[in-house]
């Protein structure tokens, strides 16, 4: 499948993203200002998506691949 996204997020990286997303989502309830809350929610959703899909678009141009650490 030529449209398949490359998997470049390893298991440990994925877990860290999942935890960070949860922490950021919880923090979004306690920060003042709707704009900052929305920004934090968007960041958390991006982390959740990259954790689930195992693809990080920021890693692509940097040629980073944390799946190699999975052994």
Number of helices: 3
Topology as a string of helices (H) and strands (E): HHH
Roughly what percent helix?
A: 55-70%
Biggest sheet, in brief?
A: none
Class per helix and strand makeup: mainly alpha
Radius of gyration: 14 Å
DSSP, total strands: 0
Description:
With 71 residues, the protein is an all-alpha fold. It has 3 helices and no strands. The protein is elongated, with a radius of gyration of 14 Å. The two termini are 25 Å apart.
Features:
71 residues; mainly alpha; 0% strand; single chain; 58% helix
Short description:
The protein is an all-alpha fold and 71 residues long. The chain is built from 3 helices and no strands.
SSE topology:
Elements: H1 11-27, H2 34-53, H3 59-62
Helix pairs in contact: 1-2
């Amino acid at each position: 499948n030529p449209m398949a996204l490359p998997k470049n997020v390893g298991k440990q990286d994925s877990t860290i993203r999942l935890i960070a997303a949860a922490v950021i989502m919880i923090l979004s309830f306690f920060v003042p200002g709707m704009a900052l809350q929305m920004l934090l929610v968007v960041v958390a959703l991006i982390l959740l998506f990259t954790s689930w899909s195992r693809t990080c678009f920021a890693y692509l141009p940097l040629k980073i691949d944390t799946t190699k650490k999975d052994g």
